[in-house]
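Q: What would this chain look like folded?
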Amino acid sequence: MTMVHSQLDRRWEQLRTWGPYGLLGIGVVLSAVTVELMDGPVEWYAAGALVVAAIALQLWWQRTRTHSTHRGRTPSRAGTAYFVVRWAIAFALTWINPFFGFYAVTGLMDADELLPARWRRLGLFASAITLAGSQSGGLPPKNLTQLIAFIGLLGANAGLHMVVAHLMEQEDERARAKAETIAELERTNAALQQALDENAALHAQLLVQAREAGVADERRRLAAEIHDTIAQGLTGIIAQLQVVANAPDLPTARTHLDRASALARHSLGEARRSVQNLAPVALEHDGLPQALKKTVAEWAERTGVRAEFTTTGTAEHLHEEVSATLLRIAQEALSNASRHAQAGRLGVTLSFMGDEVVLDVRDDGRGFDPLTLPSRNGHGGFGLDGMRARAERIAGSLTVESEPGHGTAVSARVPLVRHDR
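A: My prediction, written as structure tokens:
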């Protein structure tokens, strides 16, 4: 469509440039054939001089337009002067011979380009006078019949030209409105692109903040685990060794030494587990379902509690952040169960539910009243608050259902975000 408009504009420009020469040539040829309509050599020479003046005027205008900053459809003082002088030449030529009226048609071709809006209709009316004089047999009218014909033709030409001018003005208005709309769309697109760029920068900033928050959470979790496991184990070892120092006999001392040795081995195991939990090593070669299955099996073997792992739905290859978050929540839930639940049976279920992934950890342990949990402080364990913070960091949620004597159920629900490929 743009190419078609470009071709039309180019051809219309060619018509405006070379059309006056052609119309003047037609007028010259027809006037030469009908030379008897002119009153002697004076009018012949006058017509010749006016034709030369018209050609010189046209050459001047072409040169002026080529070097002017007001090219195209923008009126200017030079364009107005060119239109007026050309109309005067056309009127004089038509007065000499009505067939020069062909040259007067040029006034209809470019009035919208040459004249300001307030003078455009006047220019068209002036051209209509010249054309009506040519069409009625020449100027001035020689009798009543010719005068009536002139008036009728003047009204017809003027009315037609005004209608055409009105339609052209409407077209110009639509073109301006379209140009303004396109400009507004370009500004809107630029603003939208700027907003997208700012959003991308904000997203990158949020990712950095999320990673920093994750690092901080991991540090707090490790500190809590060291306090809850290794530090407590070392405290127990010290207590047992103090008893050994004051033991009244060898069997008593041996008993407490055995307890201290067991506590040391247990603390060593907890230290190794904490180091392994610095990164989700289980996810290096396995997907989340396989990693959870191995984690549950190892936990069952270590604690002696019967544990089962189940997957429901169609398994998806999850984004690494989602997989790591759910694995950490499962590990923390299993750690809490081994320390506090005294359960005989535990079940872990990973459910793929369309646009969500749900991790459920249930045990038949002693349970607790969630409303009576003390608020977390700087010396407490990572616990439920930490698991909830992990889920919420990736737009998820965590719920806990428990009752004294009836076990505990922890459920983490997070968006299903597939792995980037």
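The chain has twelve helices and five strands.
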